[in-house]
Dienelactone hydrolase family protein
Amino acid sequence: MTKITTRTVEYPADGLTMIGHLALPAGVDRRPAVLLGPEGMGLSDVERRRADALAELGYVALAFDLHGGRYLGDPEEMLARCMPLLADPDRMRGIGHAALDVLRTEPRTDPDRIAAVGYGTGGAVGLELGRGGVNLRAIGTVNATTPGRPGEAARIRCPVWAGVGSEDPIMAPAQRNAFTAEMQAAGVDWRLTVYGGALHAFHHPPVDHPVVPGVGYHRQHAQRAWRDVVDLLAECLPLPQ
């Protein structure tokens, strides 16, 4: 691991002041970068640590915000904000573009070598950037087999990897089948990994507040999903030697 530096970044999006977490690897050279999206609850130390881990590997990483600096631990409040957001691709793209602009203007970022990795709502944002034609090197999602508007997946220019728990009632088999059919029809280079026995948000360590039904942590699959993300980046966004 290498020494990293981190800082908080503020930027406007969705009528809010977003507060992201930027992690930079050691050195002064330009590096491949990862836009990292959180679950629907919002940016937490879980995503900050993931951004730091990516920086330790050698990537510039921005963990972006969804809720204007707030973490929505109340499930009803979270759903009240996230469900309309997930139903509005243009809003999701706006949130994604605002964070992407911050990442691209960071001097350490190679603006032509960026991937989007996201969990839940943050993963849906990354997919919408791809459907909007953004030049990404890879899109990786966990718990985000969200379908898009008809025909727009054809604008995705990079490989897409999606991970989902087999027992996830939120990303149910019918929904993930529709997602993979959309990717296949569009000619996308796609992969789907189904983690046996895992629920929704299986990657997220347990929290000290109520959660929506169907959520549960699975330590072994969480570790596997992280390795799958790192492997995707190594394939599509290799680091300089």
In short: The chain has a mean pLDDT of 97. The chain has six helices and eight strands.
